[in-house]
Structure formats: C-alpha cells, structure tokens
Amino acid sequence: MHEGISPEFASQMATDRVGVGINDNVVVSGKPAIFQDIQTDPLYVKHTGKGSAREAGFRSYVSLPLKSKEKTVGVMNLLSRQARTILPKDVVLLVSIANQICVATENASLFEETVKRAKEISALFDVTATVNQSLDLDSVLQEVIGKITEIFRFDTTRIYLLDPQTEEIRVRASYPANREDLSRVRVFRLGEGIVGRVTESGEPVIFEDLRSDPRYQELSSTKNTQKTGHSFIGAFPITAKLKPVGAIVCNGRTPRRLTPGEVQLITSMAGQIGVAVENAKLFTETKQKSLELEQTNRELQEANRAKADFLAAMSHELRTPLNVIIGNADLTNDGYFGDVTEKQKDALEKILRYSKVLLKLINDVLTLTKMEAKKMSLHLSTFDVSEVVTHVQNYAEQLNHNDQVEIRWHVEPDLPPLTTDALKLEEILQNLIGNAYKFTPRGSIEVGVRGLQEEERLEFVVADTGIGIGESDLGKIFDEFHQLEDAHTGTYSGVGLGLSIVKKYLELMRGQIRVESQPGVGTAFTFTLPYSV
Question: With contact defined as beta carbons under 8 Å apart, do 489 and 425 qualify?
C-alpha cells in the first residue's frame, strides 16, 4: 500500500537495488533505518546508489520493520520533502505505530481466513444436507456442483460417474450446463485421460498452470481444457465404500494454487457425492426388490386363490358321492333293502365309520380353504349353552359307542346366554372331544363349562387321561397338518386339521385357548368366549 506517491514511483522504489537496499537491511536486521536528509547523507547513497527517493526530491526517509511474533514480515516507509530532525522519542512512537499496524493487519488476515473457513464449512454442510434430503441423484448432483463452483469460483465444473456394467465414465452433471465442448469430454474409459486416470487410481491430479506443466500433455487425451483457454485443472476422485466411482473436474481460466484446506474441502465434498451415489444405488436396489417382492406376492396370492378354488371344488365334488355312500350304507345296515347277516352288518359299520371319518376330513379341508380365502364369517345368534352341550353329548355318545372311555360332564347351572356362532362352538367342542377320544385308549374325558362373571366370559375345558403331548410338540399342535409323532404310526387316524380349525374359529369369535399336557398323564384344553361377540 502507498499514500502520497504515484503507483509508478512506489513500484520503482520497491525494485531499487533488490537484495542490498535499505528495505532489505531493515527486514534482515529487524531495526529501523532513519535518514534526516537523504540528499546529503552518504550512508543513504552507499545503500541505494543514486536512489529513486533522492531523485524524486525527497529528503527525510524512515524505514520501519513490521513484525509479527518477533519475525519481520514487511516494512513501512515514511518520506518527507523537508529535512527533519527525528528524535528518539519519535522513533519509539513510529515503531509502536508500525507494530500496531502489523497487529491490525494480522488480525484482519485471521478474520478473513476465519470468514473464508466459515463459508467453506457452511458450503460443506449445505452439500451434506442436500445429499441426505433427496434420493434423486441427478438433482442432487446438479445442486452440489453449483455450490462447488460458487464457493471456489471455478469457471467450469463437471461430475463424472462410472458405469460398472460398461466400465464407461460418463458426465452426470455439468456447470454451466450444455457447454459446446461437452461432446468432446462426455465419455471416458477407465485409465483413459485425466478423468479415467483419477477414477481408476483414486488419487487427485492438479495442474496449477497446464501451459507450463509437461504432465498435462502426457495425461490428457482430449486437450480440451487447453483448447477452451483454461489454464487450471483439478481432478478429484469420487469414492463410495472406499472404491472410486467417478471424478469431479474443475477448470479455471487463470493459473491457480489450491491451499491444503481447499484441497481437503473439495475432497470432502467429493466424498459426499459418493454418499449420494451409494444412497441412490441402495434406493434403486430396494425399489427393485420391492417391485420383485410385490410381483412374487401377487403370484403367491394367485396360486393360493387357485389352490383354494381347487380344494373347494374338489371338496364339494367329493362330499356329494360320499353322502350317497353313507346314506345307502346306513339304509342297508338298517335292513331297508332286506335282511343282512352279522358279517355284512360288521362290514357296513366299518364302511359307515370310515366314510364319516373321510367326510369329516373333507369338511375340515373345505373349512380351512374358506378361512384362507377369508370367506368365513360368523352366523350370530343368542342361545343357551345347554343347547349346544346337549348336541355335543349326543355326538360324544355316538363316538364312544363301545364305551372305550368314561366321559364326565361338569356344566355349571344358570349360565348366561351367549351371543356368538352356535354351530362353530359346537364344532369346536366336537373337535376337542374327538381329539381327546382319539388319544385316550382307556381312562376318562372330562368336559367342563363355567362362567367367569368378572371377565364376562364363559370357560370351557376338555381334559383327558390319554397319551399326552411332549414339550417339543406343544408349540406346534395348532399348526395345519401337524400331527403327534405317535399319530404317524397309524394307531391314531387323522391328518392334523382339527386343532388348527379350533384355533382359527376361536380367533374369529374373539376367543382364547391354552393347553396343558404331560406325556403319559393327559392333556387339558381350556378356551374362553365372551358373553357377546
């Protein structure tokens, strides 16, 4: 800086006998140089020769060191066209002023650096926020590239991304967009040119002035930066999960040296671009998997619907002839078509018994099919529990026609009426009693019903003294087609649908069921139903 002299004179003074001039001596010694009258002082002539200040007619000359932390970083010159006597106290004052100027200059420099750093941190924050707020990669890249160009004042900036399928590195964002030279630098291969080299190696390449840097001619495959009149080029790798996925290329018309802080900031921003690339990749993969899952679900639903339709149709077609068989066998057994011998009666009873087992199985499959198709509904009515118990007792008597086990009933009197599906309740009890009978070769079955007034529910218990259920089977007995290990021996018939239907019915009727069992001791099923659904 200068005041009171022309720029030409200031420039001339700065170049007077460089290396041996007064200013150089002041910088080296850290002490002021004071001349009362340079026109007559031989020491001035010795240090400067003729001297531009002397030629310009100046007389008094003071050169003061500018110190920062005991280190001389510059000089301050004071000139006067009149000869002056400069006293020691004046020197002390001038040195103090010079020191304060140096402190102020240093503070201003620190402030400017702080402001610059704050802007850089703010820019990095904006880039990070942009990356995390959107999964639209193209819009994110365009916004980020605008911020990078603005904060560093590059003339052009481009973002290249690697296509792993073709191994081509293509422009995905450019600022300014749609420049005429874009066609020359749109696509590179790995290792090709500066872009390909940086993407492949993961190391930045910077040319402060490509006009004087022979490496540019060696590395550049297009010479586009030179052709467009730019002197500066910086290429930085974009990485995702520690792997290079592209490069960001910055150009400037004038030579430029990036500070270590600027290089670090651009590197950090390139890292955020890598995060955006990875986020977009994950989003695309997740979306694709979601679409595939939806397609799979649709196919499974269609398959289940087809299965349900098939089972329903087959169950219906099988029940019709089976009912005819049961009806005619019953009539024949009763002598409707004439007398039958004892052996014939025995054979007919077997036909009837196994036909009814088969009919029960078909009905169970049909019931399960309706439930899976969500076509099962409740037929609500209000009734006395004793009515259902009477029907179930008749079923139990027919089941236990040979008095295989003792069946005991414990039904609490004056139970409140229930509002639910009576037929489903009857079927639940029949399934549980039939299950108990099947797995109780000898012993007893107890059926109990009692009211839980505080909970406004009825509790039903079906307990037997049969073979019991092992701990490994307890958690599976309500699964479809699950049977106890002993059931596979043929001693206990069935395919494992009864308990599954019981549970699904109870879920439909807002009931709850639990089971307690011990192998060799017996099993107890307990379920509850609300007074009213």
Answer: no
